[in-house]
Design brief:
The complex is a heterodimer of chains A (about 140) and B (about 140). Chain A is α/β, with parallel strands linked by helices and about 140 residues long. Helices cover about 50% and strands about 20% of the residues of chain A. The longest helix of chain A has 25 residues, at about 50-75. Chain B is an alpha/beta fold. Chain B has 6 helices and 5 strands, in the order βαβααβαβααβ. Classes of the chains: A alpha/beta (about 140), B alpha/beta (about 140). Chains A and B meet through helix 5, helix 6 and strand 5 of A and helix 6 and strand 5 of B. Chain B: It comes from Desulforamulus aeronauticus DSM 10349. Chain B: This is Nucleotide-binding universal stress protein, UspA family. Chain B: It holds the Pfam family Usp.
């Protein structure tokens, strides 16, 4: 079973990793991919640095580091995982990755979704949930 | 031991949620499954209050329907020789599902959903939306 874990370094996405780690221990047939969607245009760059490319690289380095750390959690348990790093709108990239690469399941973190704002403006997890056909597990 | 709370209603999505949990049992042996269905008798009574039915009759009918929904889903597990527990509760569906999951220290809630897009569900709160907001444990949504 191909499982996609969108990972942005947040506490909730850490919980999602640990949740998968736990189930992977008694469920060796999982084919796990951790996906980080980051640094879309690095909009902050213009204000702070002369060279936006440099800022984008710095941003990607940072998230590559956190993605490596996430992978290391699984390596430590002897569980193989793949990693993917993409940029763009987080929800859209997650949705297209699920479709294009034929994932069977998405497991992701969620923050408190109780606020009306989150629902009207559309949180990433809500958007993913609405647009993929495969089961989605949300972990707090 | 992995305690799964499978929330069902009469929908097609609930059937797919049952299939999903059934698949889980083929891969994991230590699952303890409870099939839960929530009836909302107060809501049904309010709906039917203009018709001259006795409240007790309405309640009995709602409970009977609820039992039938549970039995229909449970029979799928039984056909596959998998033992499941069942629970029928009365009240607000999302609140009851989450409360029961907390009380029983369930590890995971599984439920069928039509998605969360419509404005009505945003404003009034669909069951899946509310379960998601209230629950502490992981929730899997099946379409």
């Amino acid at each position: 079973m191909k499982v996609l874990i969108p990972f942005d370094g947040s506490e909730a996405s850490q919980s999602a990793l640990h949740y998968v780690l736990k189930s992977a221990k008694n469920h060796r047939s999982l084919d796990i991919t951790i996906l980080t969607v980051v640094c879309n245009e690095a909009p902050f760059a213009r204000d702070f640095v002369a060279n936006p490319t440099e800022a984008l690289n710095a941003c990607q380095d940072f998230f590559r580091g956190s993605l490596e750390k996430a992978k290391a959690l699984f390596d430590a348990e002897g569980i193989q995982v793949s990693t993917l790093m993409k940029s763009g709108d987080a929800a859209e990239v997650i949705i297209s990755t699920v479709e294009e690469q034929g994932f069977d399941k998405v497991i992701m973190g969620r923050r408190g979704l109780s606020s009306l704002t989150g629902w009207v403006l559309g949180s990433v997890s809500a958007k993913v949930l609405n647009n993929v056909d495969v089961p989605v597990t949300l972990v707090k | 031991m992995n305690k799964i709370l499978l929330a069902v209603d009469g929908s097609e999505n609930a059937k797919r949620a049952v299939d999903y949990v059934l698949k889980m049992t083929r891969k994991q042996e230590d699952l303890m499954i409870t099939v839960i269905h929530i009836i909302n008798s107060q809501k049904e009574i309010t709906k039917l209050r203009n018709i001259s039915s006795e409240i007790q009759d309405i309640k009995e009918r709602v409970v009977k329907n609820g039992m039938e929904i549970i039995e229909r889903h449970v029979s799928i597990f039984e056909n596959n020789h998998i033992k499941v527990a069942t629970k029928l509760l009365d009240g607000d569906p999302a609140t009851k599902i989450v409360e029961y999951a907390k009380l029983g220290e369930y590890d995971h809630i599984v439920l069928g959903t039509r998605g969360l897009t419509d404005l009505q569900s945003i404003v009034l709160g669909s069951v899946s939306h509310k379960v998601l907001a209230l629950s502490e444990c992981p929730v899997t949504f099946i379409k």
